Amino acid sequence: MKNLLLFICCSCYSFLFAQNTDSAQYYFKKGITEKDQRLYAVAEKDFDKAINFNPQYTQAYIESGNVNLEMRRVDAAQGNFVKAYQLEPTNQDVIKQLSDLYFNNHEFQKAIDLVQKCNACDNADRILGMSNYSLEDYAKAEMYLQKAVAENDKDAESAYTLGRTYIELEKEKNAIPLYEKAIAIEPDRSNWIYELGLIYYNQEDYKSALKYFTLAADKGYAKTSDYNENLGFAELYTGDITDGMKTLNDLLAKRPNNTELINNIAYTMYETKHYDEAFTYYQKMLNINPQDASSLYMIGMVFQKKGETAKGQKICDKAIQMDPSLARNRQKKEVPMGL
């Protein structure tokens, strides 16, 4: 009797399994037809029915993931491909899709771990480079992004990110050709253009900085206070005193007691040998704070540069009495640090 019951149970199980398998295949084929007709929502339901009949149906998860991607339901698609990967962890199509999804969803460590198993991923170096950059492992980012840029010379994002990587590695000069390459590919990226202007500014190539600051604005970059401040100083350092002072004075009109800005203008005028203008702005500093010994010292230096040596030395001596630490500047024959 026991053997008979066991035979009946096995027969029932075999029958149900075969029936479920047939049903799963029916709904899967139906879903494929609907997918080909771009009836993605309908196809998804049929793929789900196929999965309900056969939870081990890897291809149904893959196709359900594909139609969810077509409908831009990224989270649902990722869930499908995760299940497919659990069922077939060596399936290269699944690994490729899931690597892209993890990367695009900013799950960078998962993307790194998975894409290294991918034999079919022609963008593996790109994913590894940009993911490592996002995780602040700049040494690895540099290695992989160099490969990615070499593999695809039309990939603006990889070129830009490699440029950013060089900045993080304190290799600003190396960043310049990468920024230029990225901008040549995508010439309307105003933030990239502005960043390149900042790099040139830090390299004291003010002519190039001014060129890219201006171009960034032409491409739609917002003329914020920071933008105008950098633009104004680039104008001054390239010898365009009229436009530079106008740009910076417009900023000062909005925040007239910004001592950092006033001091920077004063020092720029001093450094570019516009001593009368330097005097004016150091005097503004003293008007705000009469005890500002550093500004008084610089006024003394201005007079010395203009040939009034005795008067200038007397003013510097007074500043040193107010702040004895300024005496080191006389010994080193240099202007106060931090100006």
Question: How would you summarize the topology of this molecule?
Answer:
Elements: H1 2-36, H2 40-53, H3 58-70, H4 74-87, H5 92-104, H6 108-115, H7 124-134, H8 138-151, H9 156-168, H10 172-185, H11 190-202, H12 206-218, H13 225-237, H14 241-254, H15 259-271, H16 275-288, H17 293-305, H18 309-322, H19 327-332
Helix pairs in contact: 1-2, 2-3, 3-4, 4-5, 5-6, 6-7, 7-8, 7-9, 8-9, 9-10, 10-11, 11-12, 12-13, 13-14, 13-15, 15-16, 16-17, 17-18
What does this structure look like?
With 339 residues, the chain is mainly α. Helices cover 77% and strands 0% of the residues. The protein has helices at residues 2-36, 40-53, 58-70, 74-87, 92-104, 108-115, 124-134, 138-151, 156-168, 172-185, 190-202, 206-218, 225-237, 241-254, 259-271, 275-288, 293-305, 309-322, 327-332. The longest helix has 35 residues, at 2-36. It is elongated and about 105 Å long. It starts with a helix and ends in a 7-residue tail after the last helix.
Q: Would you summarize the structure shown here?
A:
The protein has 339 residues and is mostly helical. Helix content is 77%, strand content 0%.
Question: Which tags fit this structure?
Answer:
single chain; disordered C terminus; 77% helix; 339 residues; mainly alpha
